[in-house]
Amino acid sequence: MDAFLSKLESMLSASGRRVSSYTTSSAIAGDSALAILRVNGRKLLCVGASSENALLPAFQGEVVVGDGGVVKCCPLTHENAVALRASVPWTAPVSLRHRRTTIGCGDRLGVATPGHIRAVREYDAAPVLAQQSIRELTLTGRTYENVVDDVTFLVLQEGYTDGYGADGDHLKTLVDIDTAVDAGMAMITLDLTEKMNAAAEKWGEAQVCEAFEALGERVCSRIMDTYADQVFDVCGEVVTIDALEAKRCAVMYLRAMDFSREAYDLLKKRRGDAFDLEISIDETEAPTLPAHHLFIIRELLYRDIIVSSLAPRFIGEFQKAIDYIGDLAEFERQFRVHCAISHAHGEYKISIHSGSDKFSAYPIIGKHTNLRVHVKTAGTSWLEAVRAIAAADPDLYRRMHAMAFEVLPEALKLYHITPDLGRIPVLETVSDADLPGLMDQDDARQLVHVTYGGLLADEKISSAFFARLDADEEVYYDFLVKHFVHHLEELGLNPKSD
After folding, report:
1. What is the pLDDT of residues 125-141, one digit of tens each?
2. What is the rounded CA–CA span in Å between residue 153 and residue 131?
3. In Å, how far are 222, 294, 335 from 330, measured between CA atoms?
4. Domain extents in the chain
5. Helices 379-392 and 473-491 meet at what angle, rounded to 10?
């Protein structure tokens, strides 16, 4: 901390308050200095200046007058987050369209950002620190404003000036996009599940042809001229689309492509060019064939839609919280073609959804994307929080573990996982010292991963959980750093040179 911020801490201490600082937290805006401090055990945004008149006026809080200056102690409210982003621009989300490797660091709790930053800042990668889906918001009782605000303050806490993203994840309506953009989200993941006709993937020829002809003569003529019986050379890989598959793709995707244009126009209107649009077609039962991927990206380009990333549904299973399930050789064969399509059509990033913990697949992903990739994680940070609880408060973990079984049936209505609950060790046989290791056991990981909503809805568990994480935040950060560094290194990223 510079001399003035040290003085800020001294002034608060002199007023009888218990003060501790984060040595990385420091910013200057106008004639004021800003930092996140703990004051009487509570995190506050502290704004200091030589006089009250010199303080930035937008912040709301208690003014403390000291020897040689004043400090305004501001609670971490939405109004103060808005003022902070306006006063210190690097605390606001930005587009990461031109960053080569991006990591989605979903944080269901609003407290993981320092761990994410400490891991990612040592590598040539950019973090998407604020990332939530509507489903996650519903289960945690948060809003997009909460998500962006929490990250805003923690970015200041870590003094992270390299730029971060914010992703309104798996959004399906223009209304939801507007809500996310209002909160400051600079990235939108557009989930086309409800606009696609995924069922047509299994239709017979007659049904496909009937639906295709209903699209109109002009559309049918363009599709047949562009795709039917065509062989496409994409960076050395060959993708063939026969006439029936061209018709099938049109039936499956054209409505979704038109909706993508509506979403793109809305984002252009709201944010100019300062946004990232990801197209998600991964929430389907069948893998995305390379021919379908090629059709989709060419139709997006036909509509002048610039995407930052695209998420196909890959062969095999990308289940929550565990490694890749499937034939890695076949995954690599198909993944190589998906990457070639990307390279040949504007170098957008391939996006890996449910991407956490896929350690056996990471070397393949890093190799064929040449690290031009977006890896999306969410629940793995929640699991590291649970690991921290198991280490710091074994009794609380045991209560959470027991309740997870109770709320699992409800969670399985929302998440697809296939754990064998019988393989989870009986808790009475596990010592306190071995409890954190349960987060290395696949079945226990999946149990706890998907039951976060039910666990956090229990007021007693939730209050004890957050209080413990707050008291032992460095324990949690350390677990996060170790876990995310493992992700980055398995992808093939090397630490930055000094």
Report:
1. 999 999 999 999 999 99
2. 15
3. 33, 19, 8
4. 3-87, 91-200+223-379, 386-485
5. 140
- Options 169, 245, 442, 473, the catalytic residue: 169
pTM above 0.90, yes or no: yes
> Can you tell me the distance from the alpha carbon of 91 to that of 299, in angstroms, rounded to the nearest whole number?
36
Active site residue: 278, 282, 384, 442, which one?
278
**pLDDT, tens only, 189-235:** 999 999 999 999 999 999 999 999 999 999 999 999 999 999 999 99
169 is catalytic: yes
Dump pLDDT digits (tens) for 215-227. 999 999 999 999 9
Taking the alpha carbons of 394, 395, 398, 399 in that order, is the dihedral positive or negative? negative
Contacts 24+ apart (CB under 8 A), 457-463: 457/139, 457/141, 458/403, 461/396, 461/399, 461/400, 461/403
The span from the CA of 159 to the CA of 178, in Å, is: 29
CATH class of 91-200+223-379: alpha beta
Phi, psi of 167 (to 5 degrees): -120, 115
Q: What is the pLDDT of residues 298-341, one digit of tens each?
A: 999 999 999 999 999 999 999 999 999 999 999 999 999 999 99
Annotation marks residue 440 as catalytic: no
